[in-house]
Design goal:
Layout: H1 2-17, E1 40-57, E2 72-75, E3 77-90, E4 93-97, E5 100-109, H2 121-124, E6 125-142, E7 149-162, E8 183-196, E9 201-211, E10 231-245
Antiparallel strand pairs: 1-3, 1-10, 2-5, 3-4, 3-5, 4-6, 5-6, 6-7, 7-8, 8-9, 9-10
């Protein structure tokens, strides 16, 4: 699937530039010269994500000195799809709203030492599926346009609604149910580049997302839970790679 999406994006990119003299040539044809003079414009994006967790251990049970005793986070590559609304505030500053659907999965692998008795493989592993409605509000700081290329920086805040949080479940980890809070807040930093083709703007970007609030829901028998008793906070960390089309 990733290869198919990559080939599709590449073909769209090449098609848009087929009739130009080249983006990075000495004297390129200037495409869509007046496009970003619009006050408001829209677009859409496709992309990939890699979510992680930042684990802080509680002060009563400090993080083990031996790193092999840490909870291991096994990441996977998810996908993103969403819309873009871009409001021009100033010549080089835009306000962007990028609501989207982000799907991902993480596995938490617990050390045997966390358990009083020898755990089974299913007890040692917790699968955290996330179907996120991601709502970022970002400021885009663009540089001076050079030919058909314009780099930019992004920064802002976001709220995330996890539709797969299990927050309303009456079961906890004793019933094989890992629970997190449905809403989290984050701050985001990234950079990208606008590439102006003959018919559209193609904007690849990469962005880091850093969770602000703890999203873990402790187990009911907190003191005796090997899954949550040692954790003080569990916060989102993620990298987004998006391909935006205007």
């Amino acid at each position: 699937m990733r290869k198919i999406i990559a080939l599709l994006l590449l073909s769209l990119f090449l098609k848009g530039h087929a009739q130009t003299k080249g983006i990075f040539s000495k004297d390129p044809i200037v495409n869509l010269e007046n496009f970003q003079k619009q006050r408001l414009y829209f677009g859409f994006y496709l992309g990939f994500n890699s979510y992680d967790f930042k684990v802080d251990y509680n002060k009563f049970d400090a993080k083990p000195k031996n790193i092999s005793q840490d909870i291991e986070i096994k990441k996977s590559t998810g996908f993103n799809v969403g819309l873009v609304a871009d409001l021009k505030l100033q010549e080089y500053i835009n306000l962007r709203f990028e609501p989207g659907l982000y799907v991902t999965k993480r596995d938490l692998s617990y050390p045997t030492s966390y358990f009083l008795t020898e755990p089974t493989s299913s007890q040692k592993t917790r699968e955290v599926n996330s179907t996120n409605i991601h709502l970022p509000l970002l400021l885009k700081f663009s540089s001076l346009r050079t030919g058909n290329v314009r780099p930019y920086l992004l920064g802002g805040v976001s709220a995330t609604l996890n539709l797969s949080s299990n927050s309303k479940s009456i079961d906890d980890n004793s019933g094989n149910r890992f629970r997190v809070k449905p809403w989290t807040t984050n701050y985001e930093l990234g950079f990208g580049i606008d590439v102006f083709s003959e018919y559209f703007i193609f904007s690849p970007s990469i962005r880091g997302v850093f969770g602000i609030n703890d999203e873990l829901i402790p187990d009911k028998d907190f003191n005796n839970s090997p899954w949550t008793s040692k954790i003080e906070s569990l916060k989102n960390r993620a990298v987004f790679i998006n391909f935006t089309f205007h």
